[in-house]
Amino acid sequence: MWPLYQFDETETFMYRAVSNEVHALKCSAYGDGISTRLRVKGLDSFAISHGKFPKIAIYVPESKGAPGSVQVYEMSDFTSEKTGAAPQPCARRSFFRSSRAKLMWNASGNALLAWAFSDVDKTNQNYFGEQSLHYLSADGNLEQLVELKDGPIHDVKWSPNGQHFVAVHGFMPAKATLFDYKCKPIYDFGSGPRNTVQWSPFSRFLILGGFGNLPGDIEFYDKKADGKCKVMGKVRAACTVNCSWAPDGRHLITSTTSPRLRVDNGFKVFHYNGDLVHEEKVDVLLEVEFGPSPPGVFEDRPASPGKIGKNQKGGSGQNAGRPAAYVPPHLKNAKNKGQPSSNFSLAYDKKEDSPGKIKFQVSQRSSNLPPGAELATSKAASKNAKRRQRKKAAQAAGEGGGTNAGSNQEVKEEVAQVSKALEEKAALQVAADAPKRIRNLEKKLRQIEQIKAKPADALTPEQLKKLESEPQIRKEIESLRKECQ
Fold first, then answer.
1. Angstrom distance (rounded) from CA 62 to CA 44
2. Which end of the chain is more exposed for a tag (fewer CB within 10 A), N or C?
């Protein structure tokens, strides 16, 4: 559970987590003890959002067959009472196969990413366990699983302005994808030897790097307003341990430090397009960082015209600057088509699409129905479809008014047949959808019975609203059962 203590943006309150509770302590009166508390059974970690009116996200791990969950609460849910019923979250997402999670708010505090980890991968594809990424909007209107490539998630970072985030995901060669704050994929960076993403302070530039057991390739990108990302340069900083942007948003520093590596310690400073500005070697380097600066000292500036890295002038795309693949001597002059090909690469997946802006196509709603089965629509949708069909048939009959009576009679018969077929189809669809609707309504009735068992003074406004809807729910169940008969 780290960090142990968190502060809101104004540093008015300090928050700490204990067993099944989050305590809020007022910073100006720390000696007075706990100011308010929030009770959530089984909580493991929490995160305070940014903004003037912050919210708190809480992660509850999977336990005894129950799924893990991420829950978002308002600060008004904190209470000074030591006992009482747990409040209802304003947003919630449940999922299995998770024992811990990293909660990441965007800068605006209106979107949350939950990076879930499981120590065991039931598919046996990854020795280090299984990972998944989940998205929640703070108001609860949207919660979903972020669709990523099969394999581990190497890195996820929100942009400093909170409008986008980048995920590096999948088995090597890993893919990188740019999403907006509504979790809509915008740009595909393609595949490559990378496991790190870093945004510049102004959210204009970003780098994708492959450090650790990877060769240290760094790609510099300029994110345009339309979502497209332009490559400005590619360099290799071998044995890099840490990297970070300068406060001006136009320089990047990489370092090789001890005790991670005992040799080749030093640091390099690059321009935002990949040009090397400064390099220095030292015997033992423990840490190197740019000094902080207050807001307003530096301004956001676009890339200078024609400022392209020298290693990018010769080509562009994934294959730019790549050395030729090694060919064994006995295959250099081989003319036999049956000889093995040397096009395999561990760093670039040739099956993946080339980098570019993601285009969306309207797709039909997915379902779990057997192949060939029709998806049941709602009663209102069936009525609207029938009304539109009748209108088209009436227009066709009106256009043929000048023809003989025989053709007019044929049109009327055709309209009657179409109307009868639509009515039968609508009846079948409503009958197929009714049992599912009844089960959902009965589930709501069971929740209402549980609320009735609680003390009246402990009920929340949402729970009181559910109690008021009981007569309407029972009436709807009766009408649905009559339709099924």
1. 10
2. C
